[in-house]
């Protein structure tokens, strides 16, 4: 008996409904989405472990590097002149103001000079008397003494002749002893008058006692007059140098005396900038280095200065060293004691191998280092640093142009760790 085949039956959709179909599709969709999310999370969180984290990096290039030291200070002149009075006096007038520019020998303060002028007048009178006394000796006393000498010499001759006759007569027995004594006395008197005339001539002529005395009195009178005139000059206090008055401590009617500082003068001439630098930068300072300076009151206007002095000592309380800059062409707006900022250029390196200063670890140590990205891993590499700038620094050894360096102080990156470099421009 030949069997017969069973009739064909297709899929049984009799139990399916539209809600059941949609529910199944939703279940499959959520499963697919969950799988995709899992894969994405695995890629997101797993990639850093496999390929390392993304780090900011820079490519080593050549740059012009300028290393500077910035410090603040004040404008000063090389020195200042304290102006005061040399005598006690009352201020009659102050014809100048603080901040005024004065010329040498210009009157700054006038004192009451009434007594000083009277003293000069009296001293001049004494000089006139002394000169008259000296002229009297030269023109009157000396000629009179010479005439008296001639008369005395003539009288001596007459007295000598009379005495000789009296002696002769007495010898012959015709004269008396009284006549001889009178002749002798007359001769002695005449000789005494000659000696007196000689003395008068000696003392009256230059070099003589009376002449020297009169000459000394005249010199003393002239010295007294000179002293009085000097004191009168002290009544006018004048500028010893040209410059600018930066302080005024006196007014009309004040009583002044030696030792009081009445005015302070900043002499005209060289202008200096005095700043203090940290002692750790002392090794960078060299005489002749240039600086760009700006006043705090005019921050957008710069002028040039040059380093000419470095203090040999360090202030232990501040850990700072004082340096001075000279300003060859000071701007008109510059004022004494004005606060300024100076950027001193301590090194210039054209087209040097450079890297960002903030990428150098332990910059101030004896072994600074950077992290170099090599074959996908961060490698610690010791370098030698030359000029240090605010943004970039010179590398004298350890790096070559084209090397990739991790930027910043990436303390979380370990030596040998895998990293993915993102090079910034």
Walk me through this protein's architecture.
The protein has 425 residues and is an alpha+beta fold. The chain has helices at residues 18-51, 114-172, 177-204, 209-234, and strands at 54-59, 61-76, 81-83, 89-93, 101-102, 107-111, 236-238, 243-248, 255-256, 263-267, 271-278, 290-295, 298-310, 320-327, 339-356, 369-374, 377-382, 384-388, 392-397, 404-406, 420-423. It folds into four domains: 54-68 and 349-423, Beta Barrel (conserved putative lor/sdh protein from methanococcus maripaludis s2 fold); 69-76 and 271-347, Elongation Factor Tu (Ef-tu), domain 3 (Beta Barrel), CATH 2.40.30; 81-112 and 235-266, RNA polymerase II/Efflux pump adaptor protein, barrel-sandwich hybrid domain (OB fold (Dihydrolipoamide Acetyltransferase, E2P)), CATH 2.40.50; 114-233, Helix Hairpins (Orthogonal Bundle), CATH 1.10.287.620. A six-stranded antiparallel β-barrel has the order 2-11-14-13-12-15. It has a four-stranded antiparallel beta sheet with strand order 3-10-8-5, with no helix packed on it. A hairpin with a 2-residue loop joins strand 16 and strand 17 (377-382). Helix 2 runs antiparallel to helix 3 (177-204). The longest helix is centred in the middle third of the chain and has 59 residues, at 114-172.
The low-confidence parts are: none
> What's the helical proportion of residues?
25-40%
* Rg measurement, Å: 55 Å
Major beta sheet, specifics?
Answer: 6 strands, antiparallel, barrel
CATH topology of the largest domain: Helix Hairpins
Mean pLDDT: 81
| CATH level-1 class of the largest domain | Mainly Alpha
Distinct helical segment count: 4
For the record, what is the CATH homologous superfamily label of the largest domain? Helix Hairpins
SSE order, as H and E?
HEEEEEEHHHEEEEEEEEEEEEEEE
- Beta-strand fraction estimate: 25-35%
DSSP E strands, number: 21
SS content category: alpha+beta
Query: Span between N and C termini?
Result: 92 Å
Identify the CATH architecture of the largest domain.
Orthogonal Bundle
Question: Rough shape?
Answer: rod-shaped
What strand order characterises the main sheet? 2-11-14-13-12-15
Count of discrete domains: 4
